[in-house]
Amino acid sequence: MRNYKNEYKKFQSSKTDKQNRAIRNKNRRLLMKKGLVRKGDNKDIDHRDGNPKNNNLSNLKVVSRSYNRSKNRIEFFLKRVINIILTHNLFRRVWLLRNESLQERNLVAKAEFFQ
């Protein structure tokens, strides 16, 4: 059985966690007043720049709960794929340069041998 008291003590009772939760609730209430969200709509407030401390209205947008909670995994996956592609291209360039220099050395050695 889930122990909510322990979870609160460990993860939600620190001063900074309480302040962050108060800021999240304030942003939600602000967007509720503007009519962008309502209670029970399964929507989350997302920060466009990814900085939870930047609470300007231009930085806030309403997204589905599932998108907002999987966004970090999607971004991590995309960064990893990009990193793999860039690393592959770098190794490919180094390999090509190495092979070109080896071929040039072989040609020079052959030319010197026949002279």
Could you characterize the architecture of this molecule?
This protein is mainly alpha-helical and 115 residues long. The chain has one domain (4-114). The chain is built from 3 helices and 2 strands; from the N terminus they run ααββα. The chain has a two-stranded antiparallel ribbon with strand order 1-2. The longest helix has 50 residues, at 65-114. The termini are far apart. The relative contact order is 0.06. The mean pLDDT is 80.
Strand content: 5-15%
First-residue to last-residue Cα separation: 87 Å
Global mean pLDDT: 80
Question: What's the helix-strand series?
Answer: HHEEH
Summarize the structure.
By secondary structure, the protein is mainly alpha-helical.
Task: Outline the secondary-structure elements.
Layout: H1 4-12, H2 15-33, E1 43-47, E2 60-64, H3 65-114
